Amino acid sequence: MRHGEMACGYAPDAPAVSPHSLPNLLCSRHGTRGVLRPPPVLISAYVLLACVFWLLWSAWVLDVEYFDSFDVLMNTDYLLGRYGSYLDHMAPMLSVVMVPARLAGIALGLDPMDLRPCHLTMALLHSLYLLGVFWLLSIRHGFCWPVLAAFCAAVLNFVFFSYGAFMNIDIFPGIIFVAMIFLSDKLRGRMCARVWVPLVVFGALAALLKQTFGLFWLVLIVAHAVPLFKPSERTAAALKHMALLVCGSAASFAIYYLFMCFVLKDSLIDGHFLVRPAVQALEYSRSDIENSAATQHWLYLANFSFYGFLTSLLVLPGIVMSLKCGDRLQRSLAVSWIVAFLFMHVILRREVRYIAFMAPLSAFMLVPVLEWIMGKPRILAFCIIVLTADLLNASWEALRIVDPFYRESQLKRFLSPLRVVEPGTPCVFNDYLCFIPPRRSPFIGDYYHRKFHFSPYHVKHFFREDLYYMWNPARGNALHDSLSYGSGDCLIYANFFPMEIEGNFDADTYVLIFARVERVPYDASELVVGIEAGKKGFEDVRLGKVIDRYIYPVLYDPHSEKLFPVFQEGGNRFRLGDDVACLRPYSPLLTDAGAALLGYEIIRLVQIDSRGGTVCRLCAPNAIHLEY
Fold first, then answer.
1. Per-residue burial over 36-70, b = 16 or more CB atoms within 10 Å of its CB, e = otherwise
2. pTM of the predicted model, to two decimals?
3. Distance CA 37, CA 28 (A)
4. What is the tens place of the pLDDT at every residue in 145-176?
5. Which of 5, 26, 461, 493 has its C-alpha lying 20 to 30 A from 627's C-alpha?
């Protein structure tokens, strides 16, 4: 009978591969060193080297990042004393990891927005993740084709190559999770500090990387508590083991809590030292409840195929085989997969990347069913075809970084005028800045994938520390709200925030504008109050239409300090919008010498290009001014 195969297709008690025996796998049957005996060893080495090369190459060329990554770097700068307070919605450990990268950037005189040292750090972490997962799989099942196939199908999936090049903390904790499962199983046989202490450290580290991963302990406790429902399993040793796990979770929580008490000292200064983490957790829960309506419970199921077509087909059979025929560790891995997947549906905030930590667990679930398939030629041929499709899909996603969008930051180009703006000049933001790559996200219901947005406080920290900016909460009304713009003020305007639009928004209507306010003289006789039938309000007008150097201008009323939209009637005639339809022609608004027509001179314009992505353009310098 083939090694690793039983009647049910999986041998639970097959001898594990010791780390000390791994070098011997590189020897021939006759003992001649230097001969690669099992073909999977050489192929595995090529696969891992290719992935590490991709990560390092991406770290060098990538010039874009997600919103959360900039928050992480701001917290890193806080730890270095270069920022005033800690952003309390973020876990601190990734910021700690990025300290050497930021120090290297400072020492090399790099621009604050040059993220190559940070991307290199992330590339090294994800390389360790890949090597660690493959090493644990090999220790458990040996170097064989099912292990390599399970690794490629479950770990090297579309989601990994979609986020692996970025400062993403949803992938790496997967190796911590698996290590905790291994240690918790080992603790049952060796109840000693040498096993218990690393388990506690890993549990605290997971929560400090992301608060959500505090559920690792909860999953472990549930996974080991399930067998205790059988009276035969409820032994003194099993109960002692469960007590050690509960104490370990409490110890990890204590480490996390005390660490957060110190980290939040400048953010939540009103609360008592020991209350700060609880206040942070409460605020985070409120935010989750507010944002829960934007996500669907079925989001993970609808997008599970992006974790691999073969994984989607075989993970459930693998779980069943692990529970039926697996040993205690394999059953713990299977139960942990089920419990973690269910818990992630309970958490209100959902994105496809949030379950990326489960990829290593899925690989362990695939090995037994793939070992069974090795003896079924027709099924094996089908699985090879599906795995090939998986690898092609993942490779296509990996190669997207060759696109200029990822290699030359549109954000930097768009904000470059801020470098020469006079200090103290007001800069008004009506919304987040958002940039969209040419290839739209294939994820269903995941509104943040492949949308790179940026906050005004990021602009101030990374571009101009002396920038004076104003945040206008009336997002859709920035052109005609109560703010009194002055000549020379800057305006950064987006006509909507793509993440707030459900489903696949019509990106062709998205426009982001960097403009300068200009006061333009006008002749009151050229303005008429728009009270005729069929008139349009400002909100019905597409901002994408550009009138020479100006987007639609507004009229400033010094009495009410309000701005009213003005629409072109044809030629040099304009009319006021619906907001002032009740005004009479003799209103002081039309004749007061203090009134002014504010034009917005466009300096930078971001629109959707023919390939589908947003592209920053410099407006023509010889554009003709409107005559009023």
1. ebeebbeebeebbeebbebbeebbeebbbbbbbbb
2. 0.83
3. 5
4. 999 999 999 999 999 999 999 999 999 999 99
5. 493
